[in-house]
Amino acid sequence: QVDETRQKILEAAEKLFTENGFFETQIKDIAANTGVSRNTIYRYFQDKSDLAMKIIERKVSKNFESYRELIEETQKNDSLKGLKKLEIIITESWINAENGIENKLMAEFDAYYSGNRISEKMKSRFADLESREMEELMVGIIDDGKKDQSIRDDIDSHLIFVTVVNSIRALNQRI
Rounded to whole angstroms, how far apart are CA atoms 119 and 116? Predict the structure, then answer.
């Protein structure tokens, strides 16, 4: 029953975060939607941010394999230049993908936790979400683009990767 209740809370929270956004959803709304008390929710999750992070972590973990496959498949296509490969990956994994909830929540988290508001624990959880393997694959595609001259070679590949990811998150915040 513990796992069942936790799952029920996560599903209700995800639904409400998707419909209303992180900021507009309150723990009492999640409790009412789940049919449990607020105290029950706090037994499973420290606070609303902890609950949202669990949802993001589950979604990112679930989508990681498909992202990796997309990147590796695109990487193998020698008929495409690096910039086109990067465009395909961005479009398929971040724009057209069915991962709106984690993009929306990540954008809202980025906005809320900007500056000094973020705790060390939350920083660590965000760092754990960022896959080094995914970053290495993306930097490899950027390096390919530098070699075929479709991507400028005077900027560090890692910096390009970080700029692209942060730009997409910023766009999600604006939207």
Answer: 8
